[in-house]
Structures are given as structure tokens and as C-alpha cells.
Amino acid sequence: MPEADADVIAPSAAAEIRRRREAIDDLDGRIIGLLEERRRTSSEIQQIRKGSGGAGLDRSREEIVLARYGDALADEGRHVASAVLSLCRGQLPQPGPSAA
After folding, report:
1. 74: phi then psi, degrees, rounded to nearest 5
2. pLDDT at 83 over 90
3. By C-alpha distance, which of 93, 77, 73, 95 is closest to 85?
């Protein structure tokens, strides 16, 4: 895929940007793999909790995760944590139809 800004910067800068974008693509692939692993592990925990009579979702644990990401990455970290938690929750029971 051609670089959108390749014609307005020096060729050496374009090459360096391309190398660094490849590094980002590699990091993204690794992050995706870690998220898939986290989702599987989270699902296993949910199954264990439900199998032992507990709720599948532990809100106090989620608050700990939100705080950890927030401490490490500031406010945006809480947004990242929220997205990660949402991804890893799996299918939560949906509320039934309202009696309107």
C-alpha cells in the first residue's frame, strides 16, 4: 500500500517512517495475540466462577484493572482498559424485553 505522505517528504525520511510503521504493525500483531490470550483466560475464569455458583463478572476486579491502566497510562489508560474488559467479557446475558 503506498504511503499517503511519501511524495511530500524526503525519501530517506519516507524509508524511516516505513520501517517504523512496520515496527508498529509488528507490535499491533503482538498486542492482538495478547488480547486473544487474555480473552481466553478471562473466559476460563468466568466459567470457573459460574461453575462454583458465582457471578461471571467481578466488578471489583474490573475496578482494579481500570485503576492499573489509569495509573500507567493516565486517563486514556482507563479508556483502553474499558475496551479490553469489554472485549474479554464475552457474551453477557442481555436484559429481557421490557414490558412496555
Report:
1. 65, -160
2. yes
3. 77
The model's pLDDT over 17-38, given as tens digits with 9 standing for 90+, comes to: 999 999 999 999 999 999 999 9
- Compute φ and ψ for 30, nearest 5 degrees: -70, -40
What value does the mean pLDDT take over residues 48-52? 91
**How is residue 96 written as a grid cell?**
429481557
Residue 53 gets the label, from left (phi > 0), alpha (psi -120 to 50) or beta, of left
Q: What distances in angstroms separate CA 39 from CA 30, 60, 64, 74, 98, one per listed residue?
A: 14, 18, 17, 23, 31
State the DSSP H helix or E strand holding residue 13, giving kind and residue range, or none if neither: helix 11-51
CA angle 70, 76, 80 (to 5 degrees): 80
